[in-house]
Amino acid sequence: MKQMIVRKLQNLEKMHSIKIFFAVESGSRAWGFASKNSDYDVRFLYYHRPEWYFSLKKQTDAIVRMEDDNLFDFAGWELKKTLTLLLKGNMSLYEWMHSPVVYLQTPEYDSFSQLAKEFYDPKALLFSYVSLAENNYKTLIKQHHIKKKKYLYILRTLAACRWIERKKTPPPIVMNELKQVLHENTQIETALTELIETKKTGKETDTITPLTLVNTWIEKELTYYKKLAEQMPSIQKNSRLLSRFLYDTIRNQ
Question: How far is CA 211 from the centre of its chain?
């Protein structure tokens, strides 16, 4: 499967006249709870030829493409957009960079990854995770039949919040690593483990009735981490480092 995905990425390069310098799996296959019929969420970073950056025409800075009856979901960001999102502490970019399933990685990415360490922003990341959890929960509580993956999305993001607070390091992406911060909450950890195992052996559309105990825990965690994110200090960032990286990368291709 990896070879097929790499070939498809190479086709995208030719189709759009771009250079992909990093490509990974995102979503449930990266998190460790894919269902039997889960699709492939391929995410990538790329840059254009130098002349693209000097055009007066409004340019598209992202590529989205579905292939093979939606089995493959490709989405990529252009380098300037990527650096702007890094400066803002974008959660999705962070997760792509820490995916355990890598399809393609070049020396440009190695340099980018080292640079990105200087821009790790726990406040921005915590805000992103708790906001995502809150939005998903608002949708969940309106339903009587809830997709298992919806609960998993919420529990995963709240576990990431707890990791940021307690470990003082970037949270891992794989759920089996991330859930160690839930050991003290035996009932929640047990519910999470059961959800993971039943989703892996079931279908993406499988549903359950609301889990009252889990809902109560989610609401408590949302309240706590929203307040914590507001209280955390902001980090000053030097955008000139990112501008220089953009210039050097495009110039040296």
Answer: 26
Look at residues 250, 26, 5 and name the one whose alpha carbon lies nearest to residue 104.
Answer: 5
DSSP state of 117: G
- Label the pairing between strands 102-105 and 18-26: antiparallel
- Rounded to whole angstroms, the Cα distance separating 201 from 36 reads 6
> What residues contact 192, with CB distance under 8 A and at least 6 apart?
152, 155, 175, 179, 182
Q: Is residue 126 classed exposed, middle or buried when 0-12, 13-18 and 19+ CB atoms within 10 A define those classes?
A: buried
Please state, in angstroms and as integers, the Cα–Cα distance from residue 45 to each residue in 1, 115, 132, 204, 252, following that order: 20, 15, 23, 27, 17
* pTM recorded for the entire structure: 0.92
How many residues in total does the chain contain?
A: 253
Reduced to 3 states, what is the DSSP secondary structure of residue 188? helix
Cα angle 13, 16, 19 (rounded to 5 degrees) comes to 40
Longest dimension (CA), the chain: 58
Bridge partners of 74, per DSSP, are: 42, 65
* pLDDT, tens digit (0-9, with 9 covering 90-100), for 92-139: 999 999 999 999 999 999 999 999 999 999 999 999 999 999 999 999
Question: What span, in angstroms and rounded, lies between the C-alpha atoms of 169 and 75?
Answer: 27
> Alpha-carbon distance 23 to 76, whole Å?
8
- From the number of C-beta atoms within 10 Å of its C-beta (0-12, 13-18, 19+), residue 51 rates as exposed
Cα dihedral: 199, 200, 206, 210 (round 10): 0
**β-strands 207-208, 146-147: how paired?**
antiparallel
